[in-house]
Design brief:
By secondary structure, the chain is an alpha+beta fold. Among the domains are: 219 residues, Butyryl-CoA Dehydrogenase, subunit A, domain 3 (Up-down Bundle), CATH 1.20.140.10; 137 residues, Butyryl-CoA Dehydrogenase, subunit A, domain 2 (Beta Barrel), CATH 2.40.110.10. It is 54% helix and 8% strand. The strands form three sheets. Strands 1, 2, 3, 5, 6 and 9 form a six-stranded mixed β-sheet that branches. A hairpin with a 4-residue loop joins β2 and β3. The longest helix has 36 residues.
Length: 666
């Protein structure tokens, strides 16, 4: 048995709460913990046949080929679990989360979009006949799908997409065409060499009229030979900052014909004669986008949990500098600046996970309302998913980078898994909706809500508008979590009000409404961000209050310390807003700073226990710096020796170039 680093062992001995209790709480309940561990055991059962050479020493082509080999093995295990009834379409989000988290494909999988986008699109937008035809084949991996929306010339502005799908009633077919280079689909995961089917988003034309964007199931490659079908132009887009194993591709069409029944027709239809039957509500297709954005928030929690685990364990093992002369070098985790870098990430894992769970519940509740014909909360759900995706990805990218910096030079090593993790999370800031544009979509909902506040019933997430705008709501600042939440409510409400008044003033001076919106857009983004902070802070606090009713006193104390830390951190980060819109004083600010430093001190003994509770196995963490046993330096050396340059004592270039150069003979 490998000996655990003595500093890490002592850290675990100091922990004041039951780590397993927190693990169970994070998972949901004991049965979910057991189910997760069973899935992980299945996934990890094939680890010995997966890795041969670390990905960083492979070429771009070799990385893809290795990712396919690994993905086939891992998704084969998923298929086996499906056959054994351990997973169904209803819970495949949890399975894929476990799969991608427990696999060794650190840089993504070329089969990921099949689960994350292809099947959800069919589920949310296909009718019953399409479900019966396509889902069993997709579920069993008889076909492999991708999702093609973004084009070379258009991304978030999907109304501007150029790909066309023109209906031909004489053959009852749609003709898909890419009229320009900029209309080529760009970025679909797995499209480069992997997928043989794809959901394609295109402008629908029938009877000479354009009816906007709709989704179509298109076969891209022959199922037997994998050769692209006639009229299909497809390939891979090349190397990226991260996610190079995802095999992102491009896709173009030269008058490609597909059957009429390949248009996803749950909400809108084209009849055999070409008659267009429009959707009951233009925003019903939000369902698939909301689903994906919820999954992204959960993904951010998974990645961040890994990053803070690595940084915290490394900081407990790493000893550097003397706190006082004559004393031994201390653990860098004892430095308050180090705690400031890392602990907010630990708190954010819980805040974002709890908020994502709430969003997931809201998504299902609103989906049931949609089935019953009630569309009242659909705009709210869309706005909520937009801002949570934007804020969670931006925050996680910042937190992960802090964790990398907290590990000093060793954090720069790919073997630490922090650079790769940063590449994965920063990519999420632009895919499935660029963050600034998503915040502007949330802002549009907030502005409309403010304008209708006196005439319409407010939906739950914006109910605070009326309270925060009422006289006497928050005359005196309070240095408490509840006080900080109320302060953020005032900030968000006032920012929305200021945006509305600013745009009114600009419109009154002769500026068009569109120009007024654009000129105010920086403020609008800030207002949407402030609103999202209200949602995360209030949800985190309210849910912990409920959870604390059934937890041990020791864990209850730590949970509230995490809420305190998260609230205090963001109050200090957003101090300029609080100073502008609330009655916070200089003394209040000084007290907040002291409270923040005090909660860092209180959390310090439990830091390692908190990240241990995420229960991430070494095989999933894949970090030389963050292993459970704390053998940081041994693992760094072991990983270094895997470099092909260490396979020979003297590289050929010495005799070919260096020696002649040094002897002046080159």
């Amino acid at each position: 048995m490998v000996k655990v680093n003595e500093d890490l062992r002592k850290e675990r001995d100091r922990c004041t709460f039951n780590i397993q209790e927190l693990t169970t709480l994070v998972d949901g309940d004991l049965q979910k913990t057991l189910d997760r561990k069973e899935r992980e055991n299945v996934m990890l059962s094939k680890q010995d046949v997966l890795k041969k050479v670390p990905d960083e020493y492979l070429s771009h082509k070799e990385k893809y080929e290795n990712a396919i080999r690994e993905s086939v093995i891992l998704f084969g295990l998923v298929r086996r679990m499906q056959e054994e009834g351990k997973t169904t379409i209803d819970n495949y989000r949890d399975v894929v989360g476990g799969l991608l988290g427990s696999s060794t494909t650190r840089d993504g999988s070329p089969l990921g979009l099949h689960y994350i986008m292809f099947m959800p699109a069919i589920l949310n937008q296909g009718n019953e006949e399409q479900h019966a035809k396509w889902l069993p084949r997709a579920w069993n991996f008889n076909i492999i799908g991708s999702y093609a929306q973004t084009e070379l010339g258009h991304g978030t502005f999907i109304r501007g997409l150029e790909t066309t799908a023109t209906y031909d009633p004489s053959t009852q077919e749609f003709v898909l065409h890419s009229p320009t280079l900029t209309s080529y689909k760009w970025w679909p995961g797995g499209m480069g060499q992997t997928a043989n089917y794809c959901i394609v988003v295109a402008q629908l034309y029938t009877k000479g009229h354009c009816h906007g964007i709709h989704s179509f199931i298109v076969q891209v490659r022959d199922e037997e030979t994998h050769i692209p079908l006639p009229g299909i132009k497809v390939g891979e887009i090349g190397a990226k900052l991260g996610l190079n194993a995802v095999n992102n591709g491009f896709l173009g069409f030269d008058n490609v014909r597909i059957p009429r029944t390949h248009m996803l027709m749950k909400h809108a239809q084209v009849l055999e004669d070409g008659t267009y039957v429009k959707s009951r509500h233009s925003k019903l297709n939000y369902g698939a986008m909301v689903f994906v954005r919820v999954v992204i928030v959960f993904d951010m929690v998974n990645y961040l949990s890994k990053a803070v685990t690595i940084a915290t364990r490394f900081s407990a093992v790493r000893r550097q500098c003397q706190m006082k002369a004559g004393e031994p070098e201390c653990q860098i985790l004892d430095f308050v600046t180090q705690q400031h870098k890392i602990f907010i990430g630990i708190a954010a894992c819980h805040a974002l996970r709890i908020t994502a769970n709430k969003l997931w519940d809201t998504f299902h509740a609103v989906s049931e309302e949609l089935v019953a014909g009630n569309l009242n909360r659909l705009p709210e759900l869309h706005a909520l998913a937009c801002c949570l995706k934007a804020v969670s990805t931006a925050d996680t990218a910042a937190y992960v980078e802090r964790c990398r910096l907290a590990c000093g030079g060793h954090g720069y090593m790919l073997s630490s898994n922090l650079p790769l993790t940063y590449g994965l999370v920063t990519a999420a800031c632009t895919y499935e909706g660029e963050n600034t544009v998503l915040l502007l979509q949330t802002a549009r909902f907030l502005v409309k809500t403010w304008q209708q506040m006196d005439t319409a019933n407010l939906t739950p997430t914006v109910m605070y508008f009326k309270e925060a705008s009422s006289k006497g709501f928050y005359d005196k600042w309070q240095n408490s979590v509840e006080g900080i939440i109320r302060g953020f409510q005032v900030v968000a409400m006032r920012k929305v009000e200021t945006c509305v008044e600013t745009m009114k003033g600009r419109a009154a001076s002769g500026m068009s409404l569109e120009d007024a919106w654009n000129q105010t857009s920086v403020q609008l983004v800030s207002a949407a961000d402030a609103h999202c902070r209200v949602i995360i802070l209030s949800t985190f606090y309210e849910e912990v209050v409920e959870l604390a009713k059934t937890t041990s006193p020791e864990l209850k104390t730590v949970l509230f310390q995490l809420v305190d830390l998260y609230s205090l951190y963001w109050a200090l980060e957003k101090l300029s807003d609080l100073l502008l819109y609330t009655s916070i004083s200089q003394k209040d600010v000084s007290d907040l700073q002291a409270m923040y430093e005090d909660v860092l001190r209180k959390l310090r003994p439990n830091a390692v226990g908190l990240v241990d509770a995420f229960d991430i196995r070494d095989e999933m963490l894949q970090s030389t710096l963050g292993s459970y046993d704390g053998r940081v330096y041994e693992r760094l050396m072991e990983e270094a020796m895997k470099s092909p340059l260490n396979a020979e004592t003297v590289n050929d270039t010495f005799h070919k170039y260096l020696k002649p150069f040094m002897q002046g003979k080159l």
